[in-house]
Design goal:
By secondary structure, this protein is mainly alpha-helical. It is about 50% helix and about 10% strand.
Amino acid sequence: MTEKHIVDFRKKLESEGLQPATVYKNIKVIKKLVRLAIKQRIIDRNPFSNIKIKRTRSKRQYLDRNEISAFHQVDASTNSYQLAKDVFLFSVFTGLRFGDICTLQPKYFIRKNDIIRLKILIQKTKEPLEYNLNNKAKEILLRYLSIGDKRYVFPMLSKCQSNDKTTIRKKIES
């Protein structure tokens, strides 16, 4: 692999209409593999040594209230569609990442009268998070607390027998 290969690959990705953040992500993966190959003495020269990779961030887009409401009204025709819809909306109403939602356990929720309080350690940042759920998030949560596996609130990991964090992370990412 040479510098020219890397530059040509970047140009190819750009010519396919990929956004700069996506191009950066693809090149970053290759750079990581090259560093690993050097460390394992598979190659002896780093073709990235004279290449600068600029990181660009894409502009986040957010759903407005009308779009969320329209999504909420969609009729999910199967259990798996309903689960996908509920998990997405729970994420919207709570701000939680998908990985954190997958690993939610009933013990993370404290009920007091009509209030449900979430108390969790966020996986990515290792920061504690604690707040009361709004009514829409509460409605979704109560539906899943009343059925199925009591280990996790949502059933995505119900067949995962391991408590090992690496195994669980791989299951979430698959």
